[in-house]
Amino acid sequence: MTVEEIKASVSMRDVLEKYGVSVGRNGMCKCPIHGEAHPSMKVFPDGYKCFACNSGGDIFKFVQEMEKCDFKTAFKLLGGSYAHQTGRAARMTQRAHFDREKAKKELARKNEREFRRILMGCIDLCNWYLSNREPLSDDWCYARNAIQWFYHVYDTKYIEGEEVNEVDVFRKYQQVRQRFIT
20, 27, 114, 170: which has the fewest Cβ within 10 Å? Predict the structure, then answer.
């Protein structure tokens, strides 16, 4: 994780809790850096300021003060990592990342093809049922309503480009199959 990622995922209160410091509702607490009896440290979402010992900063500065260490050690203690790779190792990491992304895209394309196949199969099944049953019978009306719903889903996804709930489509597909193929 980078410095920005750590700051975005870890709040100052989280860090203080790891050191056993309880922060009041007003954001004040006892300063663990110089150890006092009365609250004098103000805690902000992204940092702190002690009015008694005049220390202040962000989560990295606080860990440095508590652990008496440098920034690099505080960065690692908060979950940071240095990813400076060169040469063959960097190329292999990039290749692995590329392969993962390619596999994700291929899986998404495969799922999209399967979804479209099922959707078109439902439309074909309803069309077949409409052409082979007595008009305005209960099953014919059910097929007519189902085909209108499937066309609406098709238009929403492929014409308007909006997302559809695929679980609902699969559920409706199962209902149509149970009703017509029994």
Answer: 20
Instruction: Compute the radius of gyration of the chain from its Cα atoms.
Output: 30
User: pLDDT tens-digit profile of 57-116?
Assistant: 998 999 898 889 998 888 888 887 666 556 676 677 778 878 888 999 999 999 999 999
Residues 6 or more apart from 151 whose CB is under 8 A from it? 123
Distance CA 105, CA 109 (A): 6
pLDDT, tens digit, 9 for 90 and up, residues 36-60: 778 889 998 888 999 888 888 998 9
Question: Is residue 69 helix, strand or coil?
Answer: coil
For the entire predicted model, the pTM comes to: 0.46
CB 67 within 8 A of CB 52: no
The 28-29 sheet, strands edge to edge = 28-29, 41-44, 47-50, 56-57
Task: Say how far apart CA 111 and CA 106 lie, in whole Å.
Answer: 9
167 burial via Cβ count (<10 Å: 0-12, 13-18, 19+):
exposed
Q: What confidence score (pLDDT) does residue 155 get?
A: 92
